[in-house]
Specification:
Two copies of one chain form a homodimer.
Chain A: H1 14-17, E1 30-35, E2 47-62, H2 71-77, E3 83-89, H3 98-124, E4 136-140, H4 150-162, H5 170-179, E5 188-196, E6 199-208, E7 221-228, H6 232-244, E8 250-251, E9 261-270, H7 281-303, E10 311-319, H8 322-333, H9 336-343, H10 349-358, E11 369-372, E12 375-379, E13 382-383, H11 389-396, E14 400-406, E15 412-419, H12 423-430
Parallel strand pairs in A: 3-4, 7-9, 8-15, 10-14
Antiparallel strand pairs in A: 1-2, 2-3, 2-9, 5-6, 6-7, 10-15, 11-12, 11-14, 12-13
Helix pairs in contact in A: 3-4, 6-7, 8-10
Chain lengths: 434, 434
């Protein structure tokens, strides 16, 4: 695997890979465009704009890292009710950029609102709706601590707005998802649709993330769009619940970004009920679809984890609490010794036992049952009597490995997802800035 | 660097490396021996015995992993006041070995006490002091979850006891320190001596540890011996204080062993005072020497960290509490992204900022000052105005890298030690059991 930070669309194999992706559809009320501001000096797209011509309800969840991108407080401080536009840049995180970083956002917001207002006034010939600075939000990803390339980005805003398109097929979604990548080797996209009444409710999601992926928003960006009319408060609740077992259940390297952000936007094109709440059948249907979409995107991030060759599921069951199950799952998933053993296709379950213990959670070694795939490797306080190293080694050659920890202490469970730790992770990260 | 689990003494280059080690001396009242029980199937020494002919006061600190070697509860459960012998085996951790593991210790203890009693009765011709099972302690290190090779070890006990030697020069100490290694590429030894009154007080220490090294006893074994007569309670206090800023201040991979153990033994040969306490000058002198010795051993563990090419010091200063300084230091030291950047000789200080933030500790980005070596890389919330990438890249080529985080929030500080994350770590650990 090589690092491919070039625009995915320029890759000759893209067309042959098209079948890997779901067919994302057009969302009424959403216009999108991407462009190169030459931040990577190789012509790849590095700016993406999402414009909601009639405004969008929205909810957003951000990193819990105490050092954040300048964009995060900026977004939080301006009290937006309805969002008109989202601008995403890659290559530069706008983190630890001080005054220059903060002022850059003011410059971009001012320019973007002006260019968008101009577009509106042209389209509507006279009604000239003003796009205000507070109608905009921003996201960024990339290197921390380098001066923010505000001029390069600002200069491209007119053409970026010019390029906005209402029609977007699968290929166009792939283009947008590619424009937000950093070390990702492929774009991440997911789609769900449900019928509510006679209406087709669509949910389109894109994500980026490959390294600095840990729970609590998994060091990534993800943007989800739906045509269903759901108010911002309800969107927030639904997003939180969906993220808990998807983006908050994955880890590549235990490192956590300063720029994590997951947002959902509703263009309000399709009514799914009056005064809807969590108890409504329509909302429940939507929630199931949203959870599926988030888990799909989260798993794509892990599959594309830096250097990852194997997808690993850690399932902790019968724990005395959810917190305990979660601690144990992540203690194993973040262990470099477990992850290198998996890379080496070695069923070294002793390291899994070490990972359980180092979580600090009290376990009963005699009750504990550890499975790798369908094979019980340890029970009754020792190696399983049916332990078969040969069969296990064969299983470890698979691309997807499942580890189950049965604590037999209670009824709570948590499943998390990770990848193995390979030479490529080190190659990618020893050399990231060059 | 290759994995050298062969007996260090068989290495042709050992003699040429002798100069690297301090000259450890004989401790009166201590006899030592090592032997091969062929646990590695290559003839290297894998058993070490330490025998205190007149008994020893002792103190021991063990792993906080909730899954432990069977030896740990066994040692704790038998209430020893005076220790006569310590047996250490390598290759097998005796962890997750169930009934077989527990019974193995009973078998070894019974046999060792018998053979040692026999030796005593031969030596003293008639006085025949009995070495009781409760006079013995055990330590082990190696693979978790494999059946404990009790028979192989038991069979070698008579010859191991036969080989006990009162005289031990530098070379003999190296032999013993080599017998407790696993993936270590070299033995770890340290020596301090002080004069108290007219007496020469000696402290000899050996350690092993290379992977599964994290704070809270740093996944390792270390055994320290002194001729100074210090009671067990005072030894415990001194050991705890020395470990806090040495073995508890190092991390290779954030993983924590099930077998960690640091012990100190006093053969009581030299009186350093009556009813001595922490306030005595002699004890203070001893404490300074013990701290120096522990830090020396801890640093040797890091230098020999699995795959390590660089020694890294993370110094967090002016924190609002010791806990906060410690959290931030280890958050950086355990970050795979920071460690791979160091391996790549890349002064990617943005990842250091990320590591500070992901600790969860509140920091003031505007006050924060980050130094790499003597170079300020970030201050006043942004990259330093004196930042010089070329000079920093040159500095990153050094074998020892210092990172200083000045939080400017209080008066507490913590220094921790780690190494970089290289391809060799993955090679060693993907293939550990083969």
């Amino acid at each position: 695997m090589t690092i491919n930070i070039k625009n995915f669309l320029n890759d000759k194999t893209t067309l042959s890979k098209m079948g890997e992706f779901q067919s994302l559809k057009q969302i009424e009320g959403l216009e999108m465009s991407s462009i190169s501001a030459d931040l990577y000096s190789d012509g790849r797209d590095d700016l993406a704009l999402f414009y909601f011509s009639k405004g969008a309800n929205y909810a957003t969840l951000t990193t819990s890292n105490s050092i954040t991108s300048e964009f995060i407080p900026w977004n939080n401080n301006s009290h937006k009710k309805i969002i008109k536009g989202l601008l995403v840049n890659t290559k530069n995180a706008n983190t630890f950029t001080g005054k220059q970083g903060k002022e850059s956002i003011d410059i971009l917001a001012k320019n973007l609102s002006r260019v968008l207002t101009l577009k509106e006034s042209k389209n509507k010939k006279g009604t000239s709706e003003t796009i205000k600075i507070k109608d905009l939000i921003f996201a960024s990803t990339g290197v921390i601590g380098e001066e923010f390339p505000v001029d390069k980005i600002r200069e491209r805003l007119p053409e970026l707005v010019e390029r906005l398109r209402k029609e977007h097929n699968k290929m166009y979604w792939i283009k947008l998802a590619s424009a937000i990548m950093t070390t990702d080797t492929k774009p991440k996209l997911a789609y769900e649709e449900i019928i509510i009444g006679d209406e087709l409710v669509k949910i389109c999601g894109i994500a980026k993330g490959s390294g600095m992926i840990a729970p609590n928003l998994a060091t990534m960006l993800s943007f989800i769009f739906t045509n269903a009319d759901i108010n911002s408060n309800l969107l927030k609740t639904l997003l939180k619940r969906a993220v808990a077992n998807s983006f908050n259940a994955i880890t590549v390297d235990s490192d956590q970004s300063t720029n994590d952000m997951v947002s959902i936007f509703s263009t309000r094109s399709i009514k799914i009920g009056q005064n809807i709440s969590l108890n409504d059948k329509a909302v429940q249907k939507f929630e199931i679809a949203l959870k599926k979409l988030c888990l799909n995107l989260a798993k794509q991030v892990i599959v594309d984890g830096e250097g990852a060759k194997k997808f690993v599921t850690i399932n902790v069951i019968n724990a005395k609490s959810l917190g305990s199950a979660k601690n144990i799952a992540f203690s194993i998933a973040n262990s470099p010794l477990v992850k290198t053993a998996i890379a080496g296709q070695d069923p070294n379950w002793g390291r899994i036992a070490m990972g359980i213990g180092k979580s600090g959670e009290i376990v009963d070694q005699k009750k504990l049952k550890i499975r790798i795939g369908n094979f019980i490797v340890a029970e009754n306080g020792k190696i399983s009597e049916t332990y078969d190293e040969k069969k296990l080694k064969e299983y470890m050659e698979w691309g997807s490995i499942e580890i189950e920890i049965n604590l037999k202490l209670g009824n709570d469970a948590f499943k998390c997802y990770t990848c193995d730790f390979t030479h490529d992770y080190i190659d990618i990260n020893a050399d990231y800035r060059n």
